[in-house]
Design brief:
7-stranded mixed beta sheet, alpha/beta, 11 strands, 316 residues
């Protein structure tokens, strides 16, 4: 559900909604200011670098597909087999290498390093695509270490932060994350917006992911001059309401403090594990050691009880 402050922000902007970037009237200027303000709230929330592009998209899936479409020709992509579909399927068009699910954080780092070192030498760039936190088991991945390995091997790191962003602090600058994708609907702003944040050079290569109004400087019947970022990758009338909602959510969570959010979730997780662990037949599914940091997600089975029956009972 939406944060109350997000719903209030949406209610306020609805009275002033207008087309952005293309009008001199007061409402258009007000809507443009709100839309661009949301972009800066998103940038600040993940501590992106000043020169990083912040592209407003529909969701994480849209963000990752956008990046996949703009990769320089010949880019070698490496991902893990346990990724969410949004961070698995878009790379198939690039002939990606998929690594086995690692059994520990250290194995994840070592496996990625070995895979990057084995790629053909040459001028083709490399990209490692990993999750920030598993949407199945909740483990938080060692992003700074993975970024270090990527950079040591002439590669960039792309993080699917859909599951991480609402539950733990993110610092792109500190950890060396080159690209990050996230969704507003995971971030208590379910109004249809997401974001792709990262280095602008790849996002400027070739034609835009979507081609249309707003993404151009000049159009004739025979030619087109594409706009600079972020407009180049935001063709069509943007989701102003969704962007404002997502920006408001980022501001609200920043005021609360993501360290505080993560600490409270940690307490709730410890309580849940203690209580559930007393139930006969309880099986907690995880990949990495039980003490590894994770977001507030617990995947489990009750031995002897069909999973759909258990879900129905819990729901009721």
């Amino acid at each position: 559900p939406a944060l109350r402050s997000v719903a209030d922000a949406v209610g306020a902007i609805l009275e002033w909604y207008s087309s952005v970037h293309r009008g001199a009237g007061f409402k258009s200027r007000a809507a443009t200011a709100a839309y661009e303000g949301a972009r800066e709230s998103i940038r600040s929330f993940v501590n992106a670098r000043p020169d990083d592009a912040v592209i407003i998209t529909r969701n994480t899936t849209d963000s990752i597909n956008l990046l996949a479409d703009t990769l320089p020709e010949g880019t070698q992509v490496v991902a893990f087999a346990g990724e969410h579909h949004a961070n698995l399927l878009p790379w198939k068009r690039c002939g990606a290498t998929y690594l086995p699910v690692p059994e520990s954080p250290g194995e994840a780092v070592a496996t990625l390093e070995a895979a990057l070192r084995s790629l053909p030498a040459g001028d083709a760039p490399h990209l490692a695509a990993v999750t920030g936190a598993s949407n199945v088991t909740g483990e938080i991945w060692p992003l700074a270490e993975l970024a270090g390995v990527a950079h040591d091997n002439a590669a960039r790191l792309m993080v699917d932060a859909a599951q991480l962003a609402p539950h733990a602090p993110i610092d792109m600058t500190r950890d060396g994350i080159d690209y990050l994708a996230m969704s507003g609907h995971k971030l208590y702003a379910p109004y249809g917006a997401g974001a792709l944040i990262g280095a602008p050079d790849w996002l400027l290569s070739g034609d835009p992911f979507l081609r249309g109004g707003g993404a151009v400087k000049l159009v004739t019947v025979d030619d087109v001059v594409w706009a600079d970022l972020p407009d180049r990758q935001e063709a069509g009338s943007p989701n102003v309401i969704g962007a404002v909602a997502m920006g408001a959510a980022c501001d609200a969570l920043a005021r609360i403090g993501m360290d505080r959010v993560a600490a409270e979730e940690g307490e709730l997780m410890a309580y849940a594990k203690e209580r559930l662990g007393t139930i006969q037949g309880f099986e907690h599914y995880r990949i990495w050691p039980a003490d590894h940091p994770r977001v507030g997600l617990m995947t489990f089975n009750l031995r002897g009880v069909p999973y759909d029956l258990l879900a129905a009972v819990l729901s009721a």
